[in-house]
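Example record used in the benchmark description.
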Amino acid sequence: MEDEELQRIREKRLRELEERLHTPREAPPAAKVLLVEESNFRALLSQHPRLVVDFWAEWCGPCRMVGPVIEDLCREMAGQVTFGKCNTDHNQRIAAQFGISAIPTIILFSGGQLADRIIGAYPKASIKSRICKIYGLPT
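Model output (structure tokens):
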């Protein structure tokens, strides 16, 4: 008697697992890097507990190397960390507020407060490692 009941339970669980495998899941929302400007900076800090901002300028060669890394990390870490880009030429007050004298500079904000900064162009793995360490995320 127990063998038949156990077999029914196994078959039921197997059907449930198969249904889950074949049921299409909702695609996660497309992650995109936010534009950080003086007009929205404070709101972004309060709305996003883990905010990573890439401070850059169009004329900066190393910034062009970091840009695609930020885009990739934004997609990879969607739902865990929010990414933004701030053009220092167009937002000089924000750059001055954080003492940015070299770009690219990536600032990690946690709960609206500066938690860490990365100055210079580093490989993706290095940037991701620092982000994960600061926010306590698995690498």
